[in-house]
Design goal:
The chain has 10 helices and 7 strands. By secondary structure, it is of the alpha/beta class. It holds the Pfam family adh_short.
């Protein structure tokens, strides 16, 4: 089976931003393939074909991309949305726990990119859209492992973009702030909790819960993903939502001392 319509592959499309982005891409005229770890348990979405995918598994990434090519004959847009959060002080997470987060948030992206690039390069066109975060360009106290994974995605995406642009392919970043999803509830908790950080970690948890409650609707981020997928002249970075836009401006233009104070104030850190 082949199609003349553009094809988008969206990882982590069973809920939240991925689900809303998949539906937005359908509306924008794409044939959309969404993925989840167990597609048989995923509620159907109009216009979206679901496939099993574990981005932390090499063989799964290879098999999923092969299935998309077999069914549709092409992949025009890859949206690397699948990810996991991690909450806790840096000292409270073991290296093994950090590796598990990176295996999804960073190496999962790399696995998918490696699988789709040959097909995009053969067609001379394609877009890779990587979901980053404002915590990919600002500090993330009490989310150091998560922030490090998103900083890694920022560096990887920028470098990749320069490598593949000559083949008609772009690597783009979408940077949301707090979004009303199950992010907090689904985030890993520290496997080595320390009493010295307990009080501040609890304070941060309340800050995070309130921020998510009043955060952007996933539709705000999904609309930006669709824009990145369809812009005639795409940009490297797309902030998603008002708070993300303000954070980007603050990071670029605020004096270092003011920026540092704002980070500590936002996260209710003493001193």
């Amino acid at each position: 089976m082949t199609t003349t319509r553009p094809v988008a592959l969206v990882t982590g499309a069973s809920s939240g931003i991925g689900k809303t982005a998949a539906l937005g891409l359908v509306k924008a005229g794409f044939d959309v393939v969404g993925t989840s770890r167990d597609a048989s348990r995923t509620a159907p979405l109009d216009g979206v074909t679901f496939l099993d995918l574990d981005v932390a598994d090499d063989a799964s990434a290879t098999a999923t991309v092969a299935q998309v090519i077999e069914r549709f004959g092409r992949i025009d847009v890859l949206v690397n949305n699948a990810g996991v959060g991690s909450i806790g002080a840096a000292e409270e997470s073991s290296v093994a726990q950090a590796q598990a987060v990176f295996d999804i948030n960073v190496f999962g992206v790399m696995r998918m990119v490696r699988e789709v690039l040959p097909h995009m390069r053969a067609r001379g066109a394609g877009r890779i859209i990587n979901l980053s975060s404002v915590q990919g360009f600002i500090p993330a106290p009490y989310m150091a492992v998560y922030g490090a994974s998103k900083h890694a995605i920022e560096g990887y995406s920028q470098s990749l973009d320069h490598e593949v642009r000559q083949y008609g392919i772009r690597s783009l970043l979408v940077e949301p702030a707090y979004t009303r999803t199950g992010f907090e509830a689904n985030s890993t908790k520290p496997d080595l909790p320390l009493p010295v950080y307990a009080e501040q970690r609890q304070i941060f948890g309340r800050v995070m819960a309130e921020a998510v409650e009043h955060g952007d609707d996933p539709a705000v981020v999904a609309a930006v993903i669709v824009t990145a997928a369809t812009d005639r002249k795409p940009r490297l970075r797309y902030t998603a939502g008002t708070l993300a836009g303000r954070a980007s401006v603050l990071r670029r233009f605020a004096p270092a001392g003011i920026f540092d104070s704002q980070i500590r104030s936002m996260n209710k850190l003493a001193g």
